[in-house]
Amino acid sequence: xxxxxxxxxxxxxxxxxxxxxxxxxxxxxxxxxxxxxxxxxxxxxxxxxxxxxxxxxxxxxxxxxxxxxxxxxxxxxxxxxxxxxxxxxxxxxxxxxxxxxxxxxxxxxxxxxxxxxxxxxxxxxxxxxxxxxxxxxxxxxxxxxxxxxxxxxxxxxxxxxxxxxxxxxxxxxxxxxxxxxxxxxxxxxxxxxxxxxxxxxxxxxxxxxxxxxxx
Length: 215
Ligand code: DX5
Ligand code: ZN
Description:
This protein is of the alpha/beta class. The protein has one domain (3-213): TIM Barrel. Helices cover 34% and strands 19% of the residues. The protein has helices spanning 16-24, 48-57, 75-81, 96-105, 150-164, 179-188, 197-200, 205-213; strands spanning 3-6, 31-36, 62-67, 85-89, 109-114, 132-136, 170-174, 192-195. Helix 2 (48-57) packs parallel to helix 3 (75-81). The radius of gyration is 16 Å and the shape is globular. The termini are close together. The relative contact order is 0.17. Bound molecules: D-xylitol-5-phosphate and zinc ion. The site of zinc ion has 6 residues, from strand 2.
């Protein structure tokens, strides 16, 4: 069964507690929390106080996706705010190995996200140290974008690389996930699916999560 991580980016922020409680009561496994800085991506979302507020009510792990430059500055702050998985972008890190060790030293699981243009091969020397790889199937920054189909083959290539390197990293995919793209990604070897607009814009978000979980 896939890990389902609904992205709060598309939730009703004026009612965030009830959105969090909906996820608590659903078949979802994690909370996907998108932090944007207006510099790494051309959009702003929310920061540490919101992550802390979500964490206060969340009964499932927080899967925090940092779309920010210089993530090293904030690692311990996100640990204190309640993050369980902390994912940084490969494209934002000059010293990725050091960043990954710092995430682990802070007591969190470490993830690396790859933009659509970044090949999976850049992770070959560090895969054994990772708990998660996040394949972006849209350009990061916004919910509701069209799925980039090349992500499916990228997942297959990453799966093979993970096996070759004896890594335990989970493969998560983010962007344009619905029942159809989700099924194709799982067939290619994905372990975890992020879904934002597909869940929160649905008439029945809980049922939509259940349907994704049943893929
Ligand atoms: C985009 C974010 C995603 C976003 C996905 O930069 O990383 O997590 O919420 O939204 P959908 O599922 O609507 O493509
Ligand atoms: Zn995300």
